[in-house]
Amino acid sequence: MVAFWVLIAGLLAAAAPALESVEDNASANLPPAASDSMKARDLVRAQLPGRDATPAIIVVRGKGTDAAASATRAVAAITSVLSGTSRPDHVVSVVSTVTAPGAAAELVSQDRGAQLVIVSMKGSPSDESFQNAVDEVRALASDRAGPADVAVTGPAGIATDTVKVFSGGDRVLLLATIVLVLIILLAIYRSPLLALVPLLAVGVAMRVAETLGAILADAGVITVSSQTASIMTVLLFGVGTDYALIITGRYRETLLDEPDRARAMQTAVRRTAESVLASASTIVLAMFALLVAVSPALHGFGPYLALGVAVMALVAFTFIPALVLLLGRGVFWPGGVDKAAERSRGAGIWHRVAALVARAPAKVASAVIALLVVLSAGLLGYQESFNTLSGFRAATESEQGQHLVQEEFGPGEIAHSTVVVRSHDNLRSSPARAYIATALTDAEHVSRVPDPRMGEDGKTVFYDVVLDLDPYGSKALDAIGPLKQAAQNAAHAAGVRDATVLIGGETAQSADIRSALDRDTTLVMLLVLAIVTAVLVPLLRSLLAPLYLVATLILSFLATLGATTFFTVTVLGDDGIGNRVTAYIFVFLVALGVDYNIFIMSRFKQELRTQPPAKAITAALTRTGGVVSSAGLILAATFAVLMTQPIRELFQFGFAMAFGILLDTFLIRPLLVPAIVRLLGDRALWPTRPGTPQTPSTPTPDPPSTDVPAARAADAGSARLLRAFTWIAITEACTWAGLLVGMYLKYIPETTELGVRIFGSLHGAAFIVYVSLTVLVAIRLKWRLGRTTIFALLAAVPPFMTVAFEIWARRTGRLSQPASAASPAPAL
């Protein structure tokens, strides 16, 4: 098994492209493709050739007694070098007082001490060649500016600095995570070999997940950004060590009664399978819930992380047990097996915590809830930020340039908005053009409106609008709606027939991102809560328990967001919470926080077989206290490493996750949940009621001898069902592998639609049989699926992957629409 995973990791690494080469950092920061701002951008590109270039804004401020002359000389020198033959290849045009003297009113500050040079650059800002060209422009501008201050900002400068800030912290993040996790594992295990096992497992899982992700991203199936890759690193380290701690902790406990190491490991894996798989399933499904989002920032975030967690779960159940057994008794060196097993009984502190909960459950629950409510009060200062530059925790030239522009020219000059008015009539000679321009000039928060530009079709007019607000601030975003309405009213009053008004530019895109995120956040929150509830109901076989467990998760989220807002906005002075951070915190905190509830409640359910509810929850708390708290501490520490990153969103997300996980680990799971269970007593798992506990002193009587044949027949029937279920699951998994090899990786335009339909039909038939057998096995085995749930996870994915593949193939043109289709139809 160990050799298998090493071989798989090596083969995939040899076949896959580098993850950095397929990362898409541009689309993650764009609004939905159907939004007005994106439609406006497309019209600019179609109707104004050359205007689709990305502008780099060079701001020059003169020095000395004659600042105006100093700025003029610097601008002349910069314009000469960027307009000459030695200019960077990506430079399309240069607009300055030298090339466009008539634009001096817009390019020169009121005191004439500062000037702007607009450099239009072709290419994609995400390409390395584009970023190198921006660096060349910066070097040339700095060299020719003389004593004058100069900075390159604007969309081109901001995009380049964003990539630099992200790329600078990846290695530091990985190294810091490894060192931190290793130190904590050594403190927990007190054995160097056992501490290395989770790290090796995470390394294998990360390599497999990264290479699979790179292959899928290269094929256009998923998108991966630098931010997603950073979060994947800490997520796998946290989740992987959690699963390793749970499995090895139960293994040490089993060694108390079972000296044979192989049988002890089998027992440990079997007894932790249900809770660990429920945990992994919750995280994977929560990540896939993000697919309902329309904003690219959320929509493309989940699949890659879901892939990583699924791979980590498989590695945890196969690689970790095999490696521990291969290392033999030496894995517990220097303390030995006996000491390692004895520590699994639970530390004294957890016995005292359990006693506290048992003495006063109402007081404990009230105190914890009161603390969570107090922490939630930090939400009074909650606000969001859409300013990318203010989110950098490192000095950048683009931020320096933005401050210069705001000081010398006004806040809106850094990023203009483009109002697009499109009609069915020709507007070349229409007086409506001037009428609309006047109306826009008179609109609220508009600083100036230059002369409009006419599109090639004569039916589209473009107005550059400069606001008197910070184009990335919330007030500017609020101004987009009224500005659109003002243009719409002016076009109607001017007699423009069937006028369509769109607004493009950085501010309009941020406004559309905000609208999409507001919609997506609410929808994703509801869906994730539904997923968590759906996982908890069959796991605990209860309708009541999922309700109060989900309620604790909501309280934990509100308290975490309140504390994060207070610390980062009120104390540290951030402009606001990053616009995507709230959704990220909710999805991850709920998906990961419920893990610890799953672990303790699953153990509580197991203890109910031999003990009454009061003693069962005490035993569950003391037995899981050390392992789960250690897992939570490691998970919190790995997310805290994100606070080393020089990006506001990652800093805030890292702080929130570390804080929230510690809340779940040391307040929710050991105090609030057990207190609620104690208060509910026999109704804690309603409608399931605990049966008569079985103890060694009152063994369950053997069935009468007359029932032995029937019992054997039932066991034989269950075994046959189990074998059939397993073979169907294996067949489904193999078919999925064939699909990946034959269609994802080797897909060619000549592949017929019939081939896709055959694959779809095979998966559909296999899935129907799989679901039927799952229900039969679940009923026959009284929902105790045990190890078969591993195959269930494998087999449940392929049908959905088939559907996703065909949708992707049709949308990307790799698979044509059916020839018989007379009208537009859905992809399937």
From TrEMBL:
Keywords: Cell membrane, Membrane, Signal, Transmembrane, Transmembrane helix
Species whose genome carries this gene: Streptomyces similanensis
Keyword Cell membrane: yes
Residues in the signal sequence: 1-20
Domain SSD: 196-326, 550-678
Family: Belongs to the resistance-nodulation-cell division (RND) (TC 2.A.6) family. MmpL subfamily.
Name by which UniProt lists this protein: MMPL family transporter
Bias (Pro residues): 696-706
This protein's record includes keyword Transmembrane helix: yes
Membrane topology designation: Multi-pass membrane protein
Transmembrane segments: 172-189, 196-217, 229-251, 272-298, 304-327, 364-382, 522-540, 547-569, 581-599, 620-644, 650-668, 724-745, 757-778, 790-809
